[in-house]
């Protein structure tokens, strides 16, 4: 019974594996693109939630830090007031970076490899062009 | 108890232990599930990889899949240089994933729905990344808080904003995970509670109408399992991105 199907040799298995991998490799890229598309389609709610969390987190840190400063230095209510606005600014900056697809980074700067001499004026354009490449970093 | 949607988040001691130096050392349900998650994850990998066969068994497939998934994540999001931090990222991922998924079993406790747990995880990541950057770049690390090309005059405003933005990372990381898990589990419980209260109020007709929330809950549980994966994934991706930021300080 079993003689009818001889055991495939390792070479044959290897060839089949390679074929299977080659078959799956192109399939992998569309699936990745599909994943990105799905990300964008689903993005509305997910992005809204992320943006909300980003603002809240920065405000929590700002207000909490301000209140701690007040307690230590006895400067109430100035620490709270100043840190509240700084926290709000930080939150909005987080959102700006998130929405532009600049990654999560504090102190983000566009990779210098993209084009050599970038001045201050063109850096915002750089960030825009960098958007697509860092898109896959968005979650 | 049955209709209180927040009852599931209560911390209860499982094994009462005496207080030591003012600390309650009792083993709580939260701690039990954390230990369980760690044991299950370790067990899955050890048992799965025991045979190391060329043709993997089911368990070995799961273990290899997990490994490759996280390895790819690290490679794509943190760069090749970050591969030596793979064990750290993998531990984080699998612990959160198991915590989320264990919570999907009815009657279990979801420890990732507690902000103190997620904040501890996020703070671990934050400290790790900060120390990594400090060790790697020394004092140059602080240039992080001054984006390239900022006029010196603006430093007074920009530096505190960037510092707050940096410090808000662990907070947003932990809030994201905890809020997703807690909201999902509360929602499930609220919908399930509708059926119970309808049945109590309207009798047989109430139970008939009560089928609607049950059907909704079936869909929601599927969604929650997706969220459980997604949130573990998001936490891991962000960890990788932070590691990349620390390695490639601009």
Stretches of chain A where pLDDT falls below 50 for ≥5 residues? 25-41, 104-139
pLDDT averaged over residues of chain B: 88
Report the radius of gyration of chain A as a whole number of Å. 26 Å
> Helix segment count of chain B?
7
Structural class of chain B: mainly alpha
Distance between the termini of chain B: 54 Å
The share of residues in extended strands of chain A comes to under 5%
Mean pLDDT of chain A: 65
Task: Give the tally of β-strands of chain A.
Answer: 0
Q: Percent helix among the residues of chain B?
A: 55-70%
Strand count of chain B: 4
- Alpha-beta classification of chain A: mainly alpha
Structural features, described:
Chain A has 139 residues and is mainly alpha-helical. Chain A has helices spanning 10-73, 78-99, 123-134. The relative contact order of chain A is 0.08. Chain B has 250 residues and is mainly alpha-helical. Chain B has one domain. Chain B is built from 7 helices and 4 strands; from the N terminus they run E-E-E-E-H-H-H-H-H-H-H. In chain B, helix 1 (29-48) packs across helix 2 (58-78), helix 2 packs across helix 7 and helix 5 runs antiparallel to helix 7 (211-247). The longest helix of chain B has 48 residues, at 155-202. Classes of the chains: A mainly alpha (139), B mainly alpha (250). Chain A binds chain B through residues 49-50, 53-54, 56-58, 60-62, 65, 83, 86-87, 89-91, 93-94, 103-109, 119-120, 123, 136-137, 139, and chain B through 76-77, 143-149, 157, 160-162, 164-169, 171-172, 175-176, 179, 233-234, 237-238, 241-242, 245, 250.
Summarize the structure.
Chain A has 139 residues and is mainly α. Helix content of chain A is 71%, strand content 0%.
How do the helices and strands line up, and which of them pair or pack?
The complex is a heterodimer of chains A (139) and B (250).
Chain A: H1 10-73, H2 78-99, H3 123-134
Chain B: E1 13-15, E2 19-20, E3 23-24, E4 27-28, H1 29-48, H2 58-78, H3 86-103, H4 115-137, H5 155-202, H6 204-209, H7 211-247
Antiparallel strand pairs in B: 1-4, 2-3
Helix pairs in contact in B: 1-2, 1-3, 2-3, 2-7, 3-7, 4-5, 4-7, 5-7
């Amino acid at each position: 019974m079993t003689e009818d199907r001889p055991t495939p040799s390792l070479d044959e298995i290897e060839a089949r594996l390679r074929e299977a991998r080659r078959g799956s490799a192109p399939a992998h890229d569309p699936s990745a693109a599909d994943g990105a598309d799905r990300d964008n389609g689903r993005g509305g709610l997910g992005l809204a939630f992320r943006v909300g969390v980003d603002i809240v987190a920065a405000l929590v840190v700002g207000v909490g830090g301000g209140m701690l400063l007040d307690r230590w230095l006895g400067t109430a209510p100035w620490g709270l007031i100043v840190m509240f606005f700084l926290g709000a600014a930080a939150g909005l900056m987080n959102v700006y970076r998130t929405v532009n697809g600049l990654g999560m980074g504090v102190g983000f700067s566009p990779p210098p490899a993209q084009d050599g001499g970038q001045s201050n004026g063109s850096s915002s354009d750089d960030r825009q062009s960098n958007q697509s490449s860092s898109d896959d970093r968005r979650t | 108890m049955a209709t209180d949607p927040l009852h599931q988040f209560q911390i209860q001691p499982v094994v009462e232990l005496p207080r030591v130096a003012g600390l309650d050392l009792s083993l709580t349900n939260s701690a039990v599930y954390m230990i369980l998650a760690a044991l299950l994850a370790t067990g899955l990998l050890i048992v799965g990889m025991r045979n190391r066969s060329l043709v993997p068994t089911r368990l070995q497939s799961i273990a290899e899949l997990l490994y490759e998934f996280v390895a790819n994540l690290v490679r794509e999001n943190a760069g090749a240089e970050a591969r030596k931090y793979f064990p750290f990222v993998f531990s984080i991922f699998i612990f959160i994933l198991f915590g989320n998924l264990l919570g999907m079993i009815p009657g279990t406790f979801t420890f990732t729905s507690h902000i103190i747990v997620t904040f501890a995880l996020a703070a671990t990541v934050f400290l790790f990344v900060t120390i990594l950057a400090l060790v790697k770049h020394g004092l140059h690390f602080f240039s992080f808080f001054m984006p390239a090309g900022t006029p010196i005059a603006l430093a007074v405003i920009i530096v505190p904003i960037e510092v707050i933005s940096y410090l808000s990372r662990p907070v947003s990381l932990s809030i994201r995970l905890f809020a997703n898990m807690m909201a999902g589990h509360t929602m499930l419980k609220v919908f399930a509670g509708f059926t119970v209260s309808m049945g109590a109020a309207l009798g047989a007709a109430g139970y008939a109408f009560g089928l609607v929330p049950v059907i909704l809950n079936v869909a929601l549980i599927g969604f929650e399992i997706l969220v459980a994966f997604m949130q573990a994934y998001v936490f891991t991706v962000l960890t990788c991105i932070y590691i990349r930021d620390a390695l490639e300080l601009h």
